[in-house]
Amino acid sequence: MTTDTFQFRVLATDGNARRGEITMPRGTIRTPAFMPVGTGGTVKAMYMDQVRELGADIILGNTYHLMLRPGAERVARLGGLHEFARWPGPILTDSGGFQVMSLASLRKITEEGVKFRSHIDGKVFEMSPERSIEIQGLLDSDIQMQLDECVKLPAKDRKIEQAMELSLRWAERCKVAFGDQPGKAMFGIVQGGDKPKLRERSAEALKALDLKGYAVGGLAVGEPQEVMLEMLEITCPILPADKPRYLMGVGTPDDILKSVARGIDMFDCVMPTRAGRHGLAFTRFGKINLKNARHADDPRPLDPESDCPASRDYSRAYLHHLVKSNELLGAMLLTWNNLAYYQRLMQDIRDAIEAGRFADRAAEIQEGWARGDL
Ligand code: PRF
Asked: How many whole angstroms from 301 Cα to the centroid of ligand 1?
């Protein structure tokens, strides 16, 4: 028997929370992990060296954006996405279906795949499950996602069921297209909206496909947080304990704490990077909106005890000034602060699970946000 060089191990558990490790040829991912979003081959406003230094073990890239610009075949000719973007570590790529639904126009979903118009130049593209896997292979992605259909909530039961069943059929096709690639993985995506029975059916059927990892999709798409958490409580126990579980597109620091408590190992979200470009800082004391005039004369940094220069060395007054003047440095410093905060949070979570005090630590972190710093 040959052993795969893609391996997941659970190192410690605390309640349903798991501290684990994914090892693969390009590096080791400490879980629970937060993956900064590098949509078009860049984590916006950050150098890759900074992203790595903050403790990110893996970043996310997007099939949809990269196939449109600069094109997957071109990236392949230039040596793959790691070489192109100067990120040597593992990369997970989303499959494109979700981005087509949120960005492209004239979208049409059939059994065969998705047809859409590019949001960049209006050109028409078609993407089948097989083509999505082919593109992710051209990018040389380490963790590839099946093509799926994600339904925005609220939605009719029938619509949610059809999208979930279609996603299951696409999962099988993606599994065949991906084949056997030691050192790499293709994850299935659980769908089923806010319907417990559909979530169960989706998780059971994907489990039977014996994939290397499982994502939970179709959440944080308009439903209240309690509903998302309830779906995790139904889904996670069905998924195999010895495979990583990834909650797609989530979330706030609070979503992350509550999802780890329910058994999630991996996250990605534009929240820290996008919010940073819009003047919002995540800190131990909660969110701080630097656009607010109350910061104009405040000489204090965002967090004097942080080891991130962006959080420690610049006054809130200066950050307020940069944000109000639309300076690039404002976006850069706040993105840096936010990713530092998210990666620090993940390290905190991993340490707490190892120490068997995850619930207590989560409560302390939440108290810090509620207390504020004023
Ligand atoms: N499917 C895929 N990507 C996603 C989602 C999904 O359901 C979500 C939903 N939160 C974010 N990104 N393929």
From this structure: 35
